[in-house]
């Protein structure tokens, strides 16, 4: 399903994308990350905590231990800097875990229990893909909240990660250079969105 090289790349990408988002969030005006918004998790910090809790739950599954969570909605870290440190720590765990895997271990079935009480089985590699995909999905929720500020969100697309971290391996289409359009705040953020967001 997934090979070692891809597992390492996905774990590194998640770490990069998470930290790029935290860099951007730290530059927002005071109070924006905890401001109530229309969202299941109420605000940016709540959504980020959900990502972190789910990362912890699946880490426990991969380690074959219990995690103690009854819900994935717990607000463990209300402070952005504290949450950032915790997220960096677990992201590094996933990077280190991926580094230690083999093709065989990535295909190994892992039995677990969802917080709902239902049981399940997935390969270790599929679990990693879920963790990475889940975080990307909910980072998108946080990105959407930027436009209520309004502010330009960071770009955390996989091709941007590859271009920045593996420039010799990344094949450019030699598109003409364009002036960067991102800034912390605009009167109408949607009017300056790169085409990929339209």
Automatic annotation (TrEMBL):
Keywords: Metal-binding. One of its GO terms (molecular function) is metal ion binding. It comes from the Bacteria. A divalent metal cation binds at residues 50, 134, 138. The keyword Metal-binding applies. Belongs to the DinB family. This is Damage-inducible protein DinB. It comes from Pseudomonas brassicacearum.
């Amino acid at each position: 399903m997934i090979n070692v090289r891809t597992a390492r790349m996905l774990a590194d990408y998640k770490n990069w994308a998470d930290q790029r988002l935290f860099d951007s969030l730290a530059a927002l005006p005071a109070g924006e990350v905890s401001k109530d918004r229309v969202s299941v998790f109420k605000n940016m910090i709540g959504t980020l905590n959900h990502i972190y809790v789910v990362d912890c739950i699946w880490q426990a599954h991969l380690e074959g231990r219990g995690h103690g969570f009854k819900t994935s909605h717990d607000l463990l870290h209300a402070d952005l800097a504290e949450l950032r440190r915790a997220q960096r720590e677990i992201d590094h765990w996933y990077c280190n875990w991926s580094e230690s895997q083999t093709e065989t271990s990535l295909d190994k079935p892992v039995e677990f229990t969802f917080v709902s009480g239902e049981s399940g089985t997935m390969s270790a590699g599929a679990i990693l893909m879920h963790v990475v995909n889940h975080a990307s999905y909910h980072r998108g929720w946080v990105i959407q909240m930027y436009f209520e500020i309004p502010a330009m969100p960071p770009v955390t697309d996989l091709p941007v990660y590859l271009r920045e971290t593996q420039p010799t391996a990344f094949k450019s289409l030699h598109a003409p250079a364009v002036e960067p359009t991102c800034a912390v705040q605009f009167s109408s953020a949607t009017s300056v969105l790169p085409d990929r967001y339209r």
